[in-house]
Amino acid sequence: MNPRTVEDVIKDFKGRRAAIIKALTKEFEELYILCDPNHPNLCLYGFPNQVWEVNLPGLSGELPEPRVGINFARDVMTRHEWLRMVSVYSDSWLASIASYFATKFSFDKADRKRLSNKINDVPLIWEVVGGKAKKRVKIKGGCLPEEILDEEVLSRLPVRDLLNYRCVCKTWRSLIDDLKFVSIHLKKYKNNSEESHLLVMSRSPRSSIGNEQVLVRRGDTFRKVQQVQNSYAFDTWICYVNGVILVKRGGFRCLEVVLWNPSIARSLSIPKSMLKAMKDATYVELGLGYEFNSNDYKVVAIIYPHAEFIRSSLGKRYCAIVPGLVLVYTLSNDSWTSNLGVSPPPYWSVGKQLYMKGAIHWINFGPKGTNDLLHLPEDSYVVLFDVKDEVFRYFELPFVMKSNFVPQEKLPTILNGSFAIFCAYDHEARHDIWVMNEYGVPESWSKCYTFTLQFDKLLHFKSNGELFYAIHGKGIKSYDINTKRVKDLAKTYSRYSKCRIYTYVESLVLLKEGKLQRPNL
Amino acid sequence: MASSSSSSLSRVVVKSSDNNLFVVNKKVASQSQLLKQCIDNMEEKGTNDVILIPLSNVTSNILTLVLEYCEKHADFADDDNNNQELKQWDHEFLKKFDYATLNSLTMAADYMVTKSLLNLCCQFIADSIKDLTVQQIRQIFDIKNDFTPQEEADIKNENAWAFR
């Protein structure tokens, strides 16, 4: 029975709408499977009795047909995009059916108006399934959906403003404290993506340990932007991930592990329950990584309880006498777990770590496996700790880098989003940069840059290809590997100075978990 | 409804919520993921008809602006060198609008999945609410302070260094 009055049309409209909403929300999995792109062109039908169906076109009879072929697009877009697309099509299909009835039953102007008012009273399907039916937020006389304000606008503000705006109202406070918002902000905040600022820690030759100055400086001019309250000495900084510095105090004897976010002055001392195992060990390597699926941070402790220290022209290494073990601290649980099934490589070279793509990377030298140590060849390779699965993985290096004699120093780094290695040669000012063009595929290694540059200390390698370095008596400079331009940044640097540079990241990580660092601790 | 004899899909027709029709060439339409998807679907089916895409959420005024943006960006689509010029244009483009228009444009960009326009609008709005006092923010967003004076003082205290 076809409807005849405005009320009938609305009833028909609402029934179909309910059916489609069901298909796009509660029963979305089923819809998704039915819309196999290998089938011929399918349509999503919603019927007045609130039943939906996926079928070939032609079921509507005299009525307008829904969008044909929704299944074709399923696998070429994300689920979310596809869902949005289908809901937009469904909205316009329902509108066309209503206007078909209005014409067919010759509704007059008043009736047509009443009909369209009633239709506009209910949110679009697109709004419902996309969560956009939420309230709109007033802004300077206009209004925006709350979701856009949160995820797209507030997430582009500096942390200083966000900390400030936490006392606007309760809603804003809980929004800014929300862990999901913290991760969105990390991605969207412009200064983070443009890597425009540097975090520079330095100590002049005359200052004592613990008197390091930490500044945020502009990446282009090196001009000071702000000073950062610092309580941690130079050699306690292990690495810097998503705005958080991993700090290991106590030198050899690992006495305290701290996570510190300088941009919001929050720090968290990690529980000491496992510290005894670390204190008594010959060597402890700590690493920090981010796990994006669970939006969580993990500290891995690679512990060699009893190992032999080897110092040679190859650098510093430890060779396990007793097999090493692995402990993992998870921020969300604030606790350590020991990972008995996983063992670190038998040799561990002391060197810088790099976090990217859900794994912590080190360059290591030695045999990879634990069996048959004597017969395995010694190679340089990349060892990774997968933050999600908590296992070690390995990347082969290109042949010329495998032997550890040439090049002398290998620094894991990121270049334009790819994993790369900066190579320095002994007694030579020549440097190479090898790039793993396809992450995880050893065949894709290629030597992308070779250049000559004299320096005493390499300070930082920025992912756009800008190198920060220091020369005794001449100061701090930067070199762009693409344009080959050299920039003078600071006039003074002596080899007795200490300096470290990172690309500064503003983030709200640890806002909830960390404690505020009071000035002048 | 419009039907045409053109042999390939070089143009689509987009209908605004107030029932105005806009003829858009394919390259321009492709700046919107939503329109692009519609076109791709039709091409896969091998249809020769000009397709009509109804946008029940976007008024003619706003659609005109979105299409103006898409047209400009389609011109630059194959050309990275003119980035600076395009950035300048983007800035001038947005500067003209009041908040109500800017907000509608933002929502239209979200609906039509035109990511670069959405980013542009949101960055523009974000820049305009940077560095303000809490009082100013409450005024702009018409928000009532639901903290007690003590609670507000405590929150301020937590981050004393952030307050000017």
Describe the structure.
The complex is a heterodimer of chains A (521) and B (164). By secondary structure, chain A is α+β, with helices and mostly antiparallel strands. In chain A, 22% of the residues lie in helices and 36% in strands. In chain A, β27 and β28 (466-471) form a beta hairpin. In chain A, α1 runs antiparallel to α3 (79-104), α1 runs parallel beside α4 (109-121) and α3 runs antiparallel to α4. By secondary structure, chain B is mainly alpha-helical. Chain B has 2 domains: 11-130, Potassium Channel Kv1.1, Chain A, CATH 3.30.710; 132-164, no CATH class. In chain B, β1 and β2 (21-25) form a beta hairpin. In chain B, α3 packs across α5 (99-111) and α5 (99-111) runs antiparallel to α6. In chain B, 30% of the residues are buried. Chains A and B meet through α3, β3, β4, α6 and α7 of A and α2, α5, α6, α7 and α8 of B.
Compact overview of the structure:
The complex is a heterodimer of chains A (521) and B (164). By secondary structure, chain A is of the alpha+beta class.
Ordered list of secondary-structure elements with their pairings:
The complex is a heterodimer of chains A (521) and B (164).
Chain A: H1 6-24, H2 28-34, E1 43-46, E2 52-55, H3 79-104, H4 109-121, H5 125-129, E3 136-139, E4 142-145, H6 146-153, H7 159-165, H8 170-177, H9 179-188, H10 190-194, E5 197-203, E6 213-218, E7 224-228, E8 237-241, E9 244-249, E10 256-261, E11 266-269, H11 275-279, E12 283-291, E13 296-304, E14 306-312, E15 315-322, E16 325-330, E17 335-339, E18 347-349, E19 353-356, E20 359-366, E21 379-386, E22 391-396, H12 399-402, E23 409-415, E24 418-424, E25 430-436, E26 445-452, E27 457-461, E28 466-471, E29 475-480, E30 486-490, E31 498-503, E32 515-516
Antiparallel strand pairs in A: 1-2, 3-4, 5-6, 5-31, 6-7, 8-9, 9-10, 10-11, 11-32, 12-13, 13-16, 14-15, 15-18, 16-17, 19-20, 20-21, 21-22, 23-24, 24-25, 25-26, 27-28, 28-29, 29-30
Helix pairs in contact in A: 1-3, 1-4, 3-4
Chain B: E1 11-15, E2 21-25, H1 26-29, H2 33-45, E3 52-54, H3 60-75, H4 83-95, H5 99-111, H6 115-128, H7 134-141, H8 149-158
Parallel strand pairs in B: 1-3
Antiparallel strand pairs in B: 1-2
Helix pairs in contact in B: 3-5, 5-6
